[in-house]
Specification:
This protein has two helices and three strands. 28% of the residues lie in helices and 11% in strands. Strand 1 and strand 2 form a beta hairpin. The chain has a three-stranded antiparallel β-sheet, with no helix packed on it. The protein has two domains: 33 residues, no CATH class; 50 residues, Rubrerythrin, domain 2 (Single Sheet). The radius of gyration is 23 Å and the shape is elongated.
């Protein structure tokens, strides 16, 4: 594939990095690795956890802003002393639900 000047894109990319003497490649290696891993791993599956006592469901993608957990808060990041808002059951009384 070529750009508007007819130069192959790989050459443009290599030319850009090699012609800029102050290009901090070492700063970009971590970012490139994270980008590549996101591209190969795909999106993280959404996990939901259900209280086995009352059936309340905690959805990681929605979080619980009322409890101080913004959307995207992982189950592992919720404190161990947290209790179910519906019945008061402990975090140990929740099981992961597959959707």
């Amino acid at each position: 594939m070529a750009d508007s000047l007819g130069i192959p894109q790989r050459s443009v990319c290599a030319l850009h990095i090699s012609t800029v003497p102050s290009f901090p490649l070492f700063r970009w290696r971590g970012r490139i690795a994270r980008f590549v891993s996101l591209q190969t791993e795909g999106p993280r599956p959404v996990k939901r956890y259900m209280c086995v006592i009352c059936g309340f469901i905690y959805d990681e993608s929605k979080g619980m802003p009322s409890e101080g957990f913004p959307p995207g808060t992982k189950w592992e990041d919720i404190p161990l002393n947290w209790a179910c808002p519906e019945c008061g059951a402990s975090k140990d009384d929740f099981e992961m639900v597959e959707i």
